[in-house]
Structures are given as C-alpha cells and as structure tokens.
Amino acid sequence: MRPRNFWPWVALGALLVFNLVFTQGFARLEFREGRLFGTLVDIFQNGAPVMLLAVGMTLVIALGGIDLSVGSVMALSGAVAALLMTEHAQPVPLAVAGALAVALGAGALNGVLVTHGGIQPIIVTLVMLVMGRGVAQTLTHDQKVRFEVPAFEFIGNGTVAGLPFPVLLVAAVALTVGLLLRNTATGLYLEAMGSNPRAARLSGLRVHVIQILAFMASGLCAGLAGLIAAADIKEADVANAGLYLELDAILAVVLGGTSLTGGRANLVGSLIGATFIQTLTTMLQMRGVITEHTLIIKALVALSVCFMQTPAFERWTRRLRSAEAA
Amino acid sequence: MNFLRKHVTVLAGALVYVLLYALASVRYDGFFSLPVFINFLSNNAVLGIVAVGMTFVILSGGIDLSVGAVMSFSSVLIGVLIMEHGWSVPAAIAASLVCGVTLGALMGAIIHTTGIKPFIVTLAGMFFVRGLAFLIHLESIGISQASHTALAMARVGPLPLTAVLFLGFVAVGWYVAVFTPFGRNVYALGGGEEAALLMGLPVRRTRIAVYAVSGFCASFAGAALTFYLSSGSHLEGVGMELDAIATVVIGGTLLAGGVGSVFGTLVGVLMLGLILTSITTYEGMMSSGLTRVAIGAMLLAFVLLQKVLTRRVAGVGRAT
User: Which of A66, A112, A292, A293 best tests the B interface by mutation, with the highest count of B CBs <10 A?
Assistant: First the structure.
C-alpha cells in the first residue's frame, strides 16, 4: 500500500533534487528588505494563479465536470477590477468585490446551465470561454487598461511576514477548501455526486445545488487568479490574461492523480501538480531552453507522470521485477 | 418513425439551420444567394476538414485536442519543405500527411496501451506537436512557388479548390462511417467499449485508426491552409480544437460517443459559417469582443434549441 499522492510527490521531489544539484542558482534563498527572495519563492509566486485555478478545477472535476472557462474568467475579473478603479474611480475593496462578484456570477451561470439546461459541462464552459473574454474585450474596447494603485498592486506583489501575498492567498484558499472537504460533509457529497449522480440524487442529495456551488467555487478561484495576474503587471490585458491556463490547471489536477471521470477530490495532489508544472517551466527558463521548445519537454514529462499512475505501469514494473528475480 | 428517431439530432440541426438561414435572408438583402453560400463553404473549409476527422474520434467516444497543433505543424512543414528544401508540392504534402498519420496513430496507441484519458494524451500531444513545429521553423513561413500558387487559385466550377476538398472529405467520411466495417466498429466502440470487445471487434486497431484518421485530416487541413493563406503558420491553429469540437457537437454528435454523423458535422460547419458571416459582414460588427459574445450566445441558443427538439421527438427518457 503506497501513501496518498506517492507518484506526484516522487515526481516533484525528483525534479527539485535534480535542480538543487544541477541548476545554477536554484537553491539560493536570501532575505532582503524584509522579504524572502530566490527561485523557490518565485516558483510559488509565479505559480499562484495556476494553483488557484487548480483548486477550483479539482472541485469541478471531482463531481465529474470540467471547467474550460477559467482563463476567460481571469481576464474578465482583471478587466472589471481595472475599469472600476480607473474609469469609475472606485476604491480598491469595491473593485475587488466587483471583480469577484462577476467571476462568481460567471461560475453560477455555468452551473445553472449544466444542471438546469442539461448541457454537458465541456460545452457550457466552452461557450463561457468564448463569451467571457468577449465581454472583457467589449468592456475595455479591446485596449489594455493600465492603473497605478499601490493598494491593489499589493495583491500581486505585496509581502506579508517576508512571504509574497499571492502565496499566502493560495495557502488560505487551499486551507479553507481543504477543511471544507475533509471536516464537513461537502467533500463526501461532492465525491458521491461525481461517482454516481443518479445514486446521489436518489439518496436525497441536492445534486443541483452541489453542482452549482462547485462551478461557483471554480469561478471565484479564477476571479482571484485574475486579480493576481492583473495586479502583478499593473494592467488588465484582456487578450492575454489567463490564455490557455485552463489547460495548465487541468494538467495540474491530472498530474495530481485525480481521475477525469470524477468521484475523487485530491486537493493536495492538484497543488503538487501545479507546483510541478511551474518548477519545470522555471527550470527550463533558467537553463536557457527556448520557450517554444519547452512545450515538447513539458508534454513528455506530463505524459510520463500520468503513465506512472496507470495500472499499465503497475503491470509493467511487476513484469520487470519478476524478470529480475528469475 | 425509426428513421426519425435514429437521425433526430442531425435533422434537428438541419432544421434549425434552415430556420436561421431563412431569418437571415429576410433580414439581409442578398443573403439568400449562391455566392454567399459558397463563401460559407470556402471560408470554413479548413475547419471543416479538421472537424470530419474529429467526428470519427468523438463517435468512438474519444476526443482529440491536438488537431490545431497538427494542422499548424503540417502547414509549417509544407512551407519549409517547399521553400527551403525545394520539394515539389505533392511530395511536401505527402510528407506532412505521413507525419500527421504517424502522430495520430502514436497518440491512439498511447491511449489504448496505457489507459490514460484521451483528453490528457491529446492535450500533451498538442503541446508536443506545437513544440515540434517551432523546432523545424521558429517563425511562420510564406510560400511563393508557381505550382503552389496555381493550385491555390484553382476552381472547380464556382467552387475554390479548398471547398471542393472539404466536400470530398465529407462525402468520403460519410461513406466510411456508414458503409464500411471500420465505420461500424467506430460506432460500436463509442456505444460501449466492453460490448465491442465481447463482440470480438478489433478495439485496439479501431482506436488507433481513429486517431490516425484525425491526424490525417488535421494535416490535410494544414495543406489546405497553405493554399488559403499562401503561408505555413504557427498561429492559425490556435483554438482550432475547440472550434472543431463545437462544430461536431452542433452537428448533433454526442460527446459521449456512439451517436452522430459526418453529415451533421457538415451542418455544424455551415452553421458556424452562417453565424460568423451574418455577424461580421452583414451586421457590420467589427469589434472582436462583441463578435465573440454573439458567437457564444448563438452557440448556446443552438445547443439549447437542439436539446428541446431532440427531447420532443425522441421522448424524455433518452439519455442525451
């Protein structure tokens, strides 16, 4: 019996050890101006948006759905926050609240269309992927919206107790969701619903409510990620914010060992998966691999990690071992 | 009634298409004319060819996210072979088709032997192939060669070559799906893998072939793209996989597999063409943001409408 998340931990551990030994300057950590600096910190800081998306995506995938719209919702939330602060001169808390409300609304719409419209999640969120960015582009008239609001920029690059704020935000969100999953019935409902919706409904679960809430949670996570992305570069770039991040988020969840068919919510695994992706990206950048070529390596590594979690791999290693014994 | 029940999703799609076309014709002058219709075909031929391959994958119960990348890769490869290595056009296209089929078959083999979800394998495939395309050439590449240009300008009657190719793919795809053992195997596999296995159908061979077919179609679409753009482009296939899935689904093919048809995909492509043309050309909506919103809204309206029509004919009990 292997411990939970065995292969994801092994993969991440191997990658970290490899880098600590072979990548120049990877291990350096220093404390400057009351803040921790170093590659390891950067990995968590830059990986924060994908980690947030992965948390929401875990919930949606656990109930057998998928959310392709998270990248667009990121763009939308960044745009709403930027416009509220610049064009409408609203204070930061209101801008943040407005942006998150819109993201929550997008998630709710996804959920309602899936449950009451009876359309497959992949189609509903595909529509939202197309429309969400479209709405963002319309709101900003296809322009980037720049802003200079230190209080807001704090979300992207502020520091609390020496640690970057986005990292703490991820930790807070993951902890909240983790506690909800483990210490309340939420996790049980979610997984029951994912493994057999019909049985869940017949045993009295309010399947619709659970489903809508999961999509709302995913929307909210995407909204937070959008705020970080915008605050980090001091502008809302609707054309590029969150582009293709839905794929990274799905990959993170799958690397973490969650099956796409639903019925399991493995939050820690997803976080390991997201960290793994970001570590790999950072490592390739530090080693001077051209960004376009890193795609090949990312693909091969992702496939290998997925392969290690399959029964086929199990059979293969068993055969190897018995061949050695003979 | 049996015929109706069997083809209800496609018929619903065709019906909605006719309704929308009629609406648009009433609203816009000159919309109901042959040149406009031909434009739907030729402007969306590349997407259509990709979608024909995607139809087979989805019918078999799988999904292929790598098609856009394979298409870009193949267009760049053709560009490089013609412009930098002096290959002839047919040789370059043949080489790209070999690559497309190999990549597809490889993904199919991985899916079958490891049991990793198609969604993930082809997602990784998308990254991999996009990386490969950058490996052979870092930038998009213009193609200017006499025989290539001649083919790009060629017309059959009123139809440009790419539109003819698209219709050819639909015809052959429809024939293969309906009248060949391979087609039956694909439907059976999508209907239930275990049942297909127990019936003694060649599940492994069928699954690998399905992804090879998709790779073939995607790389052929890449060739068609070079005729359409006169260049091999890295950018053109971005997001193509989602468009292709959308067209297949609009055409009434169930994402769960086993139900649908290539003819429906033709309807889906025409549908997208209708929506795009009426919004951008006739409604004069130049803002790309509003265009996206309109496309999304119509896609949603269409899926919902199809749902209602399907339910009415087939009865509520069906798990669609």
Answer: A292
Our CA dihedral for A128, A133, A136, A140, rounded to 10 degrees, sits at -160
ipTM exceeding cut-off 0.95 for this assembly: no
Nearest-CB residue to B128 (from A133, A247, A299):
A299
Q: Are strands B231-232 and A163-164 parallel, antiparallel or unpaired?
A: unpaired
Residue type at A199? A
Each of the 326 residues of chain A gets a pLDDT tens digit; together they read 567 788 888 888 888 888 888 877 777 777 777 777 788 888 898 999 999 999 999 999 998 888 989 999 999 999 999 999 998 889 999 999 999 999 999 999 999 999 988 888 888 998 898 899 999 999 998 889 999 888 899 998 888 888 889 999 999 999 999 999 888 888 888 888 888 888 888 888 888 899 999 999 999 999 999 999 999 999 988 888 888 788 889 889 988 888 777 778 889 999 999 999 999 888 888 888 887 788 888 888 888 888 887 888 888 888 888 888 77
Looking at residue A2, the DSSP 8-state letter turns out to be P
Closest-CA residue in chain B for A254? B120
Place of tokens 């506690």: A179
d(CA B173, CA B268): 15
Q: Hey, which residues 165-204 in chain A have their CB within 8 Å of chain B?
A: none
Contact B307 A68 (CB under 8 A): no
Q: Is A76 on the interface with B (CB under 8 A)?
A: no
Rounded distance between C-alpha atoms, residue A49 and residue A165, angstroms: 12
Question: Do the chains contact at B127 and A290, CB–CB below 8 Å?
Answer: no
Which alpha helices (H) appear in A158-310, and where do they start and end? 165-183, 186-195, 197-202, 207-233, 245-255, 267-286, 291-308
The pTM is what?
0.83
Q: How far is A255 from chain B (nearest CA, A)?
A: 10
A113 in reach of chain B (CB within 8 A): yes
